[in-house]
Request: fold
Amino acid sequence: MNEITARQITTSDAIGEALAEEMRRDDRVLVFGEGVATKRIDLLAAFGPQRVRNTPLAEGIIAGTAAGAAATGLRPVVDLLFAPFLCYAMDEIVNSAGKLRTLSGGQFAFPMVVLAQTGSGWGVGAQHNHNIEAWFVHSPGLKVAMPSTPADAKGLLKAAIRDDNPVLLFTDLGLAFAPGPVGASWDEEHIVPLGKAAVRREGRDVTLISYAKTVHTCLAAAEDLAGQGVSAEVIDLRSLKPLDEAAILASVRRTGRAIVVHEAGGPCGMGAEVAAVIAEKAFAALRAPVIRLTGPDAPAPASFPLEQAFAPNADAITAAALRACREPLPA
Amino acid sequence: MNEITARQITTSDAIGEALAEEMRRDDRVLVFGEGVATKRIDLLAAFGPQRVRNTPLAEGIIAGTAAGAAATGLRPVVDLLFAPFLCYAMDEIVNSAGKLRTLSGGQFAFPMVVLAQTGSGWGVGAQHNHNIEAWFVHSPGLKVAMPSTPADAKGLLKAAIRDDNPVLLFTDLGLAFAPGPVGASWDEEHIVPLGKAAVRREGRDVTLISYAKTVHTCLAAAEDLAGQGVSAEVIDLRSLKPLDEAAILASVRRTGRAIVVHEAGGPCGMGAEVAAVIAEKAFAALRAPVIRLTGPDAPAPASFPLEQAFAPNADAITAAALRACREPLPA
Amino acid sequence: MLDLMDALRRMMTIRAYEETLVALHGEGRAAGTCTAVGQEASAVGVVSALTPDDLILTNHRSAGHLIARGADPARLMAEVMGKRDGYCGGMSGSLHISAKDLGVVLTSTIVGGELGLCTGVALSQTMLKRPGIVTCFFGDGAAAEGRFHESLNLAAVWSLPILYVCENNEWQAFVHRRETMLGDSIAGRAAGYGIEGVTVDGNDVEAVHAAATQAAERIRRTGRPVLLETRSYRLRGHYEPDDQSYVDAAELAAWKARDPIPLLAARMTAAGLLDDAALGRLKDEVAAALEAAVGFADASPYPDAAALTAHVYA
Amino acid sequence: MLDLMDALRRMMTIRAYEETLVALHGEGRAAGTCTAVGQEASAVGVVSALTPDDLILTNHRSAGHLIARGADPARLMAEVMGKRDGYCGGMSGSLHISAKDLGVVLTSTIVGGELGLCTGVALSQTMLKRPGIVTCFFGDGAAAEGRFHESLNLAAVWSLPILYVCENNEWQAFVHRRETMLGDSIAGRAAGYGIEGVTVDGNDVEAVHAAATQAAERIRRTGRPVLLETRSYRLRGHYEPDDQSYVDAAELAAWKARDPIPLLAARMTAAGLLDDAALGRLKDEVAAALEAAVGFADASPYPDAAALTAHVYA
Ligand SMILES: Cc1ncc(C[n+]2csc(CCOP(=O)(O)OP(=O)(O)O)c2C)c(N)n1
Ligand SMILES: Cc1ncc(C[n+]2csc(CCOP(=O)(O)OP(=O)(O)O)c2C)c(N)n1
Ligand SMILES: [Mg+2]
Ligand SMILES: [Mg+2]
Reply:
C-alpha cells in the first residue's frame, strides 16, 4: 500500500469500514453492544436493525449471546466498550467460548469478535482504562490482537471476523482519533493476518518490541538512538496470541539485545512472555539482559499529568537501550 | 517446627484450623460462600450463623459483599469453590477491591481473602480446573498465594486474613487431601508471610522454581538428578504476588541455571514472569537458557490418562535440567 | 398426547443409568457424578414436548435431559468414563456433555452458563430462519446468578423463542433453596420481565408434559420466551459420594413417597395400561441395556495424548 | 418536613456546578463529565431524607448525590480536574468520587458496581451494630446488569438495611430505556425478591423526599431493603460533549417543561415562600460560590508523580 497517496482515516473509522465490508461480504456477520446502533448509524442504515443492535446494559449476556450465536451459525462482533467491562463477561469469553470446543470434543466453533478500548489518553481512570490483554493471552482457545495503526485495526478486524475462533481486538484509547494511512475503502482484501508481527524500523544493535500506543514511543526512541549512533529495530507485535515468535527471535538473534515495552502492568504481562521466549530460545545470541519497560503495577490514573507519566516514555526507552549496549553487564 | 513429631493433617483441615484460629482471635473475621456453613459445620457451631454463612449461588455478589464489608470494618473470607467460578467475580475482585483504594486516594482498604481450588487430580475438567492465578498477579492491588503443603496453606491463610489487602489463596485440588506435618493446632503464631519463598532442597547446579503441586514433581526430579550427579535446588514460591525475587535471584546467581515449572498454561503465566525477572536481573550469571515447563495452553481434560499427562512430570523436568547443564547451548 | 409407556421406559432408563453410575463409582470404576434421581419426570415431561428441530441446553445434571432426548446410555457412560466413544470423545467427562446430533448443544457446568448461551442459540434460530425453539434447563440455584436476570430480560426484549425450564429441586449443592431466597416461586419472577411464568408439579410427568407442550406452542406462536418452573426434589446427594447428612430426613422421606416413577407406574396400572408382568419385562429390558452400556464403556479406549490439544482451535 | 428553601438552594447549586463544568469543558479547562441536569430533585429529595449516620453509594453520575449530602463544590471541581485538593486527592477524576467523611463510600463507575458493593456495606452496618442504613443510587441501565438481581436477592434473604434508589432517567448512555426492557417499571421487579418496590415522580422533590422518608423509616423498622424508583429524565447528553442527535426532540421538550427547579420555584412562589428578589439573591449566592469553586480548583496543584503508586496497597 502506498502510504503517500493513501487516505488518512482514524482507527475508529477503520473499524467501521472493516465492519461494513465484512457485513457486506457475509450475511452471517452481525454487530451488537451498548449503543452500537446509535453510534454506528451508518451501519444501521446499511444493514438494518437485525444485524446492528443496541443491547441492554449487561456485558455478560452480550458476550454469552455472541458465543451461543457463534456456535450455531452466526459470526457476531460485540463491542464491550472499555476493557475493564470485560470483567463482567469473563465466564462467557473464557469458560464458554474458550473451552466448550475442547470440552465437547470439537463439536462447536466460536467465530466471534470482542471489541474493547483501553489505554491512557482520555483521563477516564482505572475502571475504563486497564490493559488486561495478557489475561486472554493466558487463556486457552482465544486469540488476541492490539493494533498500533488504523490500517492494522482495519486489517486485523477483518481477519478476526473471518477467523473461526474467538478473537479479542483491543484498541488503544490514545490512538482512537489519530489519523493514519489506510488503503482504498473498497479494498476488501486489506487483511492483516493474526499472528504476524511487523518490523516498523530496521536496526542492527538492539530490538525494541512493543504493541499499540508504545510502538510509536519506541519509534521516537529509535530516532533518538540513531542520533547517538545506536541502530534500533522496532517490532510491532500486532497479534499477542498467536505470537509471532519467529519475527521476535530472528531480530534478537541479529541484534543480541531486546527491550520489551508496553503500557500494561509488568507482572505476568505480555513483556514477561516475550522476555521469557527470548531467554529460552535466543539465549546464545543475547549480549545483554532482556529489559522490560511497562506501565506501573498500579491502577491507571485520571489526573492529566499522572496519566501522561503512566506509560513508558521515549527517554526511558532510549536510556534502557543505551544501558543494554554497554555490554557486558554485571549481574 | 519438628517435622517428625508434628501432626499430619490435610490442606482442607489446615484451612479449617486457620479460619477457626483467626475467627477466635478477631471478631471481625467472618466466612461465607456456597455451602460454607454446611461443609464447615464445626465453624458454624463455634462462631454461629452470623459469622459462618451459606449464600445464594452468585459469585459476583459474594465477592462484592466481601469487598463492601472489608472496606467498612469487617474482614471477610469468601470461598468461591473452584477457580473458574471467579470469572463471575472479576469486577468485584479486580475493579473494586483492587482499584478503589487508589481511585479514592487511599480512603478505603480491602482486608479480604478469596479462596478457590484448582488443578488436576479430580477429573472435573476445564470449567472446574483452570489455573488462572496469573490473572491476579497481573492485576494491581491484589496479593496471590498458592501453597504446596498443608502447613503453608494454614500459615498463608492466617497471614492473608491479617493482611489489609485483598488476597487470593488458591489451593491445589491434587493436594487437598494429602496429609502433611503441621504444628500444634493451638499454635496461633504459625504464620507464613506473604512474599517469602521457601528453599525446599538446596543444590548447586540448577534451580528448579515452582509452586503448588509441581513443587513435589520438582523434588522428585531433583532426586533423579542427584542420582545422575546433578545437584538441583528447589524453590517453592508459595506467594506469587508479592514475588520473592531476592530468593529466586540469589539461587540462580549461584547455580547459573533456572527451570520454571507449573501446571498453569505458559503464555503470560507465572513462569514467564519468573523467567523475565531472571533474564533481566541475573543475566550475567546465566549459563544456560531459562527453560519453562508448563501445562499445555489448552483446557484441562477430565479423562483420567489425559489429566495425568497434563501437568509437567518429573522426567520432563529431569531432562530439561540435564539439557541446561549441557552448556553452552547453540541458539 | 404423551405415550405413557414410552415415558415410563425413559424414566426407568434414566434412573437405572444413574444408579449404575453410582454403583460403578462405589467400585472405583467411574468418577463421581451429579445424579437427578427423583427428577426424571421433569426431564421426560419437557423433552417429550419438543420437536426434533428444537435445541436443548443443559448443565451438570444432564443425564435425564440427554436420555429423554434419545441419547445412548452406552455412549453417555463412555463419556463419563472419559473414553473415546463418548459423545464428546471423552473430552467432557460427566459435567458438560453436549450431543449436537441430538440437538443438545453447548452444555456448560458453570451454573448460569446455559442461561448466558441460550439467547445466542435462539438468535441464530430466528436470524437463520430455522424451525425449532430453544429449551434451556437450569436449576433453582442458577436462578440466583445474575445471568438469569440478564438472559430473561434480553430474551424478552429481543423476543427470542426460548423455553426456560427451571428445575427447582430444593437444593443448590449443599445449600437448601430456602436459604437463598425469600418466598418459594422462581416462575413468579417472569412477570418482572414481561413474560409468562408457569409452575408445575415436577414429579407428575403428564402434568409437566402438558405444561411444556402448552408453553412450547405459545413460544412457537408468539416467538416470545416462557419460564416454566418444575417443582421436584433431588433424592440423592449433590454428587457421588454424598451422605446427605445435611438433609432433613422428614422432607426427604416425604418426597421419596412421591417418587415420580412409582407414581406413573401406579397411575398406569390403575388405568389398566400396565401390569406386574409388563413392568417386570420393562425392568429387565432396561437392566439389560445398562449392562450392555457398561460393557461398551469399559471396552472403549481412552483418547490418546494428542487429544489434549486437538480441539483448542478450529 | 423538607426545608424547601434549602432544597431549592441545593438543587440550584447542583445545576450551577454541572453547568459550570460543562462551560469549563467547552473551554478545554476540564475533562468531560456525566451530568445529571434535570435529575436534581431525585438526589436532593432522597439525600434530604437520610440521617448523618446513613451511608451512600453512588456511581458515575454522582455530583447531585454528593452536593445534596453537603459536598463542597470547590473540592468536587478540584477532583474532576485531577487536583490534589479534590476529595480523592485527584486520584479519581470525575467518575468515581468517594467522600468517606460525608458517608459517600466506594463510588464505582462500573455500572452495577455500586449494587455489588452495597450489600457488604450494609452487612458491616448490621454486624458492627452501627446506626444508619445504606442508600445505593443506580440507574435504569444498571438494573439490567446481573448484579441488580444478585444484590436485591441477597439483601432480601439476609435482611440488609438498604434503600435501593433506581434513578430512571430513560437513558443508558446512547440507548433509550425502552430498547432494553419490556414494560416501564423497574420497581415492579422488587416483588420477585419478596421486598417492597415504590415508584415516585423524580422531578417533584417533595414527593421524592416523602417517598424516601417513608422507605427509610420502614427499612430502619424492619431491617429489610426497599427499592425506590425515581422517574426522571437526563436533560443533557450522556457526557460532555454529546450533541444528543439521537434524542427525540418532543420527548426532550416535554421533560424540559417539567424541569424540577422551576417546578419547585413556582410552587414556592405560589405558596408565598419565594419572590423574584429572593430567587435573584439565591442565584447570586450560588453563582458566587461556583466562581469561588473554580478559583479554588484552578489554584489547587496536581498530585506529584509519587501518587501514581502511593495507594496501591494498604
Ligand atoms: C458458577 C458456578 N458456581 C458454583 C458451581 C458449583 N456447583 C455445581 S452444581 C451447584 C448447585 C447448583 O444448584 P442448582 O442450580 O439448583 O442445580 P442442581 O444442581 O440443583 O440441579 C453448584 C453450587 C458451579 N459449577 N458454577
Ligand atoms: C459495566 C459497565 N458497562 C458500561 C459502562 C459505560 N457506561 C457508563 S454510564 C452508562 C449508562 C448507564 O446508564 P444508567 O445505569 O441508566 O445510568 P445513567 O447514566 O442513566 O445515570 C454506560 C453504558 C460502564 N461504565 N460500566
Ligand atoms: Mg437445585
Ligand atoms: Mg439511565
In short: Residues B 34, 57, 59, 81, 85, 88; C 60-61, 109-112, 139-142, 167, 169, 171-173, 234 surround thiamine diphosphate (ligand 1) (CB under 6 Å). The mean pLDDT of chain B is 96. Chain B touches chain A through 59 residues (CB under 8 Å).
